[in-house]
Amino acid sequence: MTASPETPPSPNSLTAPRTSTPAASPAAPSPVLALLGRGLAAGSLGGLAAGLFSLLLAEPLMDKAIRAEEARSQAHEQHDAGAAVQHHEELFSRSTQHAGLVIALVVAGLAIGVLFAVAYALVHRRDPRANPWPRALAFCAAAFCAVSLFPALRYPAMPPGVGDSGTVGDRQAMWVAAVVISVLGMFLVWQVYVRLAGRSQPVRQLAAAGTAAAVLALLWALPDNPDPTPVSPTLLWDFRMLSLASHVLMWVVFAAVFGGIGLRALRARAGTEAASTPAV
């Protein structure tokens, strides 16, 4: 018998399972949140690797640079007989500074991970299902050039104690300007490569390389470092190479973790879709 509109529903109809209406599927997680989690994991591990590397290899050089700076200060005080001799106690001990170095690089890695995830989502939003491994490697290589390599070529790392305290603000402003120019320049390189998609690979690659060279030339339009470097050339070279190597290690670990997690998520999603597809 067909129930009329006025017929109240039976109690059984409220508890029986409804086979005609499909069950609501759980909401899919936001891809941006997944990328943020991936960036935080990669950034923390990359920062930890760079911190341990600097602690084991770069810190002994920094201790040498500090001793050299103290020797220069003592010689200056002895030379200037009229000046009052002042001894400045360090606010933190060297052991505390060593621990703080690792913690600071982990925190910096977390911040880089968040920024990297947002930029990655914006650049690759049109093709979210592409292979994340080569894409993460290429994006990390571009980020390394923009954030670490290009600014370091223009303003190499300086050992502690080198430079006038009165020029700290100017030096920080010049380094920030170098980072901004490098990041915008790398975005321009990517735009040139994308917009020449209809051209052959040699044309696209040469155009991108020429744009990168122009960005490097623009960096040299910035003012020079105003401070001398009164340390031995060997110490200066070793310190700069170790500083750059810590950046390389950080980005290598970052790329491996970010791309590896993305590749694992892609394989898991492909397995789930294959299992849910009915056999023909």
Automatic annotation (TrEMBL):
Residues 13-28 have a biased composition (Low complexity). Residues 1-28 are annotated as: Disordered. The chain crosses the membrane at residues 99-123, 135-153, 173-194, 206-222, 242-263. Residues 1-11 have a biased composition (Pro residues). Pfam families: CbtA. The keyword Secreted does not apply. The keyword Protein transport does not apply. InterPro entries: CbtA_put. It comes from the Bacteria. Keywords: Membrane, Transmembrane, Transmembrane helix. This is Putative cobalt transporter CbtA. It comes from Streptomyces spectabilis. The lineage of its organism: Bacteria, Bacillati, Actinomycetota, Actinomycetes, Kitasatosporales.
